[in-house]
Amino acid sequence: MSTIRVAIAGSSGSIGTQTLDVVRAEAGRYEIVGLGVASSVETLIAQANEFRPKVVAVADQRRRAEVAAALPFAEVVADLADLTDDADVVVNGVVGFAGLSVTIRTLRMGKRLALANKESLIAGAPVVQPLRSTVGAELVPVDSEHCAIHQCLRSSAMPGNEVARIVLTASGGPFRGRKATELADVGVDQALQHPTWKMGPKITIDSSTLMNKGLEVIEAHELFGTAYDQIEVVVHPQSIVHSMVEFTDGSTIAQLSMPDMRLPIGYALAYPNRIATAFGRIDWADLRRLDFEPADTTTFRCLPLAYEAGRIGTTAPAWLSAANEVAVEAFLAGRIRWARIAEVCDATLQRFERSADRTVDDIIAADARARQVATEVLAA
Ligand code: MG
After folding, report:
1. How far is the CA of 299 from the centre of ligand 1 (A)?
2. What residue segments make up the domains of the chain, in order of their start?
3. In 137-158, which positions are buried (b, 16+ CB within 10 angstroms) versus exposed (e)?
């Protein structure tokens, strides 16, 4: 087997560092050809010294000279999308809207995209979807739920006709079982305590509001072409069943493992094969129970809001996602209460302005306008 060349956009983040864990564990199977960060140059330099990529990307121009001096063997570029040139597989672990350009370039070049950047499909779907038909282009999701669905769908020869529904599981986050009144005064520290997954701060807050699950519903719709009426969310606090697909004959296929993002990362790198290193193996002697309960959409309003935006379509998911970024940023900075996140998202979505959605510029404009509206809502 020849070596598979991998580039990682967002290499200092949670997905990036875990991708390097997989590459380290699968010695000789993968070669790191590109690493890129926004501004975490210390981490980038350490990673590059270990993996010796040809190209490193640093978005923050003030830090570029320092990186070039530290890494004489690597070409230093500004644009994370430039990392795709020498790679067979591009891991997009960029956080937020900034990841869109990496997704577009990778698909346009007809390469495998291991996608962990949610905004690429949520905000970017109108421009990203057509690129998926580029010859050689392939999108494999790096998200535990979508990776699970991707695996479950492989049990059907005709998933387009045979899927009855997708059941997305949600851990419920740190506030599962609590009511809105009990959540009025929760602080940033409490919202950052995820019960089962270790992730970055933005996505951890999104898990506490269930916005993360809502965005995943939109992502599932875009990835697999499943109608919103056929996508359900069920709360499963152990995060062992990562999602399920029910087929027309009543069979439900599920994917199970301990929560470990290295499994979906390895799946996306190796697909249609599997890596040889096991991550998240289940010890059945230890596993006592798997619980399931309905999602509380009254307390966690971000979930129904995401369905609403998804059903509107066009740039409405981009609009909601941008509003959420503004609200989460304000919450992390201590400027608003936790409950305000959903209120800001709701009020901003109610002011959705339909716009063109054909080009990246259209989507950037919708994103910018939504941020403006959300900022007005915050100030009101
Ligand atoms: Mg997930």
Report:
1. 20
2. 4-141
3. bbbbbbbbbbbbbbbbbeebee
Phi and psi for 276 in degrees, rounded to 5? -90, -15
pLDDT tens sequence across 353-373? 999 888 888 998 999 999 999
| Tokens read off for 158 | 């005709």
* CA 1 to ligand 1 centroid distance, Å: 31
Residue 342, helix vs strand vs coil = helix
CA 253 to mean position of chain CA atoms? 23
Question: What separation in Å is there between the alpha carbon of 162 and the centre of ligand 1?
Answer: 24
Over its C-alpha atoms, the chain yields an Rg (Å, rounded) of 20
CA of 148 to the centre of ligand 1 (A): 10
Backbone angles phi, psi at 75, to 5 degrees: -80, 135
CATH assignment of 4-141? 3.40.50.720
Contact 202, 95 (CB under 8 A): yes
Q: Please list all protein residues whose beta carbon sits less than 5 angstroms from ligand 1, which is an ion.
A: 143-145
Cα of 145 to ligand 1 centre, how many Å? 5
Task: Report how far ligand 1's centroid is from the alpha carbon of 216 (Å).
Answer: 7
pLDDT in tens, 276-332: 999 999 999 999 899 999 999 999 999 999 999 999 999 999 999 999 999 999 999
Which residues face 168 on adjacent strands? Answer: 233, 243
Give the Å distance between the CA of 225 and the centre of ligand 1: 18
Using alpha carbons, select from 355, 373, 374 the residue that is nearest to residue 365.
Answer: 355
Distance 355 CA to ligand 1 centre (A): 29
Residue among 78, 82, 125 at smallest CA distance from 100: 125
